[in-house]
Write a structure and sequence with these properties.
This protein is about 10% helix and about 25% strand. The protein has helices at about 75-85, 105-115, and strands at about 20-25, 30-35, 125-130, 135-140, 150-155, 160, 165-170, 175-180, 190-195.
Length: about 200
C-alpha cells in the first residue's frame, strides 16, 4: 500500500487529521510546506533534541517538536501570525498593525489575546458585566491559557486605572470581581491581555 493510496498512512480525507501536516508559507512564497496541526503526536516529542530554533529561525520554547518546523510558538508574534494566517497572506497582511480578519483587533492584539487573527468571530471581549452593590461589578470573559488578564476603568476614555490583579487564563470563561473607583457614576471598563 503506497503513501497516498486509499487506506495508506497519508490517506486523503476531508476530515481534519490531528497529526497530518497543514500548509505552511515559506519565505513569503505561496508554496506550501508541511506544519503540525494541534494535537499532533509529533508536537513537543523531540525530548533529546539540542535545537534552539526551527527552519524559519524562530526560537523553540520548551520541548521541541519532531521536524524542522516548531508549531504552536505563542510566545513569538512572528511565529504565531505565520502559523495562523493562510499561506497566501502577503507580507503586509502579516504586519502587527494589520487587521487581517477585519474584526477591529490588529494582528498584534490578536497575538496578545491568543485569538485567531483569521477569524472575525474570535475576539477578546467582555461577555457580561453584572452589578454587585454597592460599588462593584463582576466581569466575565473567555480566557486563553498562557495569557494574563487585567480589568481597567476610565471616566473619560483617556485616563485608565487598573482595577484587578493579573489573572491567569484557563481556556474557559472567567468571572472577575471588580470594585469600581470613586468618581463619575458612568465608568468605562477595558479588558487587557498580555503574555
Amino acid at each position: 500500500m503506497g503513501l497516498d493510496e486509499p487506506g495508506g498512512p497519508h490517506k486523503k480525507s476531508s476530515e481534519a487529521c490531528r497529526s497530518c501536516p497543514a500548509a505552511l508559507p515559506h519565505g513569503g512564497a505561496e508554496e506550501a510546506r508541511p506544519r503540525l496541526l494541534p494535537g499532533s503526536p509529533a508536537r513537543e516529542a523531540a525530548t533529546d533534541s539540542p535545537s534552539t530554533g526551527d527552519q524559519r529561525g524562530f526560537e523553540i520554547v520548551g520541548t521541541p517538536d519532531i521536524g524542522a518546523y516548531e508549531a504552536g510558538t505563542d510566545s513569538n508574534f512572528n511565529a504565531f501570525i505565520s502559523e495562523h494566517l493562510p499561506a497566501g497572506a502577503t507580507a503586509a497582511e502579516h504586519a502587527p498593525a494589520f487587521d487581517f480578519d477585519g474584526d477591529g483587533a490588529d494582528n498584534v492584539s490578536e497575538w496578545l489575546a491568543l485569538t485567531d487573527p483569521a477569524d472575525p468571530a474570535s475576539t477578546l471581549r467582555i461577555l457580561r458585566i453584572v452589578p454587585v452593590p454597592p460599588t462593584g461589578v463582576e466581569v466575565t470573559f473567555v480566557s486563553s491559557v498562557g495569557r494574563l488578564y487585567q480589568v481597567s476603568t476610565s471616566v473619560n476614555l483617556s485616563d485608565w486605572v487598573v482595577l484587578s490583579e493579573a489573572i491567569q487564563g484557563t481556556g474557559r470563561e472567567l468571572t472577575v470581581p471588580v470594585v469600581l473607583g470613586p468618581g463619575s457614576p458612568h465608568q468605562f471598563l477595558r479588558l487587557l491581555a498580555s503574555p
